[in-house]
Amino acid sequence: MKQYETVIGLEVHVELATKTKIFCGCSTEFGGAPNTHTCPVCTGIPGSLPVLNRQVVEFALKAGIAANCKINQTCRFDRKNYFYPDNPQNYQISQLYLPICRDGWVEIETSAGKKKVGIHEMHREDCSLVDYNRSGVPLIEIVSEPDMRSAEEVTAYLEKLRHMMQYLGVSDCKLQEGSMRADVNLSVREAGCETFGTRTEMKNLNSFKAI
Length: 211
Hints:
The chain has 211 residues and is of the alpha+beta class. It is 15% helix and 33% strand. The chain has 2 helices and 9 strands.
């Protein structure tokens, strides 16, 4: 009888604990009245000029160093121009090609022993919901390698990341407030096979049980 294994990689979105947004001085405080923490920059008014929040860079670097990443000396922001129904700019500002950190790892421990989960890259982004108070709130996306093989390993990895980010003061990682969530990339293949199966992606899960 054939034996199969799951192949799992995660894209973990960690909202950064800055007082202001990534490209403007608006507050990132959770729970304000809708659209009270907004300005021409984060609502995408033509002609408004963004200014990068220095603390976003510092927090991203702290997270990258803690995850044993290589810090790129050159990085840049790109526009991801696909339809966002709740984003006033109609694009996301992300680091699509030259991220700030890459090629790291996080060590986890499960009932099977210790294991290193590779970090493909960390990059900075802004995010948005219908309430534009969240438009421009800074986050880092931590993209793992497809190194996990079980739900136990996934949970151990997420717990390790959450503890790291909280210890560094980079994020409060409150899943119930959306400040930590994950996209799960999963495929199935025959045990011992080197090629990957057909990948499925489940987006924006914000509880370990759901993940």
